[in-house]
Amino acid sequence: MDGPPDRAPAPTDLTDAPTNAPADAPADAPDATLGPALLVLPDRVVRGRLRLEGGRIAAITPEGDAEAPASTPGPELEGDYILPGLVDLHTDHIEKHLHPRVTAPWDPLSAALAYDAQVIAAGVTTVFDSLSVGAAIRQPERRDLLFPALDALARAAQLGLFRAEHRLHLRCEISDPDTPILMERALSRPGMAAELAGGVGLVSLMDHAPGDRQSPDMDRWTRRMAENIDVSLVEMIARRDALLERSARLGPSIRAHCAAAALERGLAVMSHDDASAAHVALARAEGATISEFPTTLEAARAATAGGMAVIAGGPNLVRGGSMTGNVAARDLAAEGLLDILASDYVPRSLVDAAFAMAADPGLSQGLPEAVAMVSAAPARAAGLTDRGAIAPGLRADLIRVRRVGGVAHVAEAWREGRRVL
């Protein structure tokens, strides 16, 4: 794998073409040897080879037992890396394929396949498809996308069309009175668990009412939303006030219902957009173990102190800050408050963020630590102990990354030992 940097070399010791076959029978995967390449292990980077057998990592053979010169990517490490397949706990990118324009819905199965292709090309081998359950004001069409999306995802998985492994993350909007019944219908959808790798695995609790959490500046939120949905300021104020009333009146009971329903089924619960220690305390009392996208250092510190995993957005890290002026992912990383990165709205932000973090001289995380934030840590938070790292016995979910002009190019991907990209 030492070819020129502008051209991806041919696969090593693998079948000639990738297969999209479902990975239900790992023994069907061809045994293979990958490398030599720079292997990003949990604690270091080494040049060596991997042996894959029966869909698992059988052995790691360093090349001459010589460790790579550094864990931070630089000119001396230009070439091919093998990383564990990435695990994404939050991406709502499928909604952009289902509704590329507000007035232009797309065929759900076609949308699911286009979305899967983008996910695997970003190096994500396990993805939690994040679907909105209920809606606040913006994008009310999300409420109508839930069940067509669920059916399309299950159908594509049933037909063996997916390259990545798809699981589900239900994003529950607590200001919508329809959220509890929509959630119960989604959780009890026939065939969902069988087709989608166990079905729903994560539930997050969201409140997008302004004045708190993601949007503390109510006036700014009102003006922006009036422009986004093309209504007058007077009309937007009326809608905002109705949303605030629903959030105050219904939010606490809907939030408690959704958390309890998730815990009864053994699902991990995430609290969304925590802005204060009080928000974190509420989430912990409800059984949440993950603080997703905290908006302040105060909330992130409280979550870490309380034993919760903290998630930030990959785009936040790559772009250097939050779109909405909330806490920067880099600041969380610098304080040791960042555990997991999720792609949010840009699937390939995970691989970009891992290399960007490792290359940042102001951060202490090297490449193994940065890669763990997009592989081992999210897998562990979701209860998936069989993947997320390059170690003997774990699933051979792997990606080959070539650094080209400072950009991480995902050249190949394997899921349970089968080449799928």
| Spatial extent as radius of gyration | 21 Å
Write down the CATH class of the largest domain. Answer: Alpha Beta
Profile the largest sheet.
8 strands, parallel
CATH topology of the largest domain: TIM Barrel
User: How large is the count of helical segments?
Assistant: 14
- Written as H for each helix and E for each strand, in order along the chain, the element string is EEEEEHHEHEHHEHHEHEHEHHEHHHEEE
What structural category do the secondary elements indicate? alpha/beta
Organism: Albimonas donghaensis
Protein name: Alpha-D-ribose 1-methylphosphonate 5-triphosphate diphosphatase
Pfam families: Amidohydro_1
Domain Amidohydrolase-related: 81-401
Walkthrough of the structure:
By secondary structure, the protein is an alpha/beta fold. The protein folds into 2 domains: 26-84 and 387-419, Urease, subunit C, domain 1 (Roll), CATH 2.30.40; 86-381, TIM Barrel, CATH 3.20.20. It is built from 14 helices and 15 strands. It has helices at 94-98, 108-121, 141-158, 179-187, 192-195, 218-228, 233-264, 277-285, 297-305, 314-319, 329-334, 349-359, 367-372, 376-381, and strands at residues 32-40, 45-53, 56-67, 80-84, 86-91, 124-133, 165-173, 200-206, 268-272, 290-292, 309-313, 340-342, 398-404, 407-415, 418-419. It has an 8-stranded parallel beta sheet. β14 (407-415) and β15 form a beta hairpin. α6 (218-228) packs across α7. The model is unreliable at 1-27 and 65-78 (pLDDT under 50). Residues 1-33 are annotated as: Disordered. This is Alpha-D-ribose 1-methylphosphonate 5-triphosphate diphosphatase.
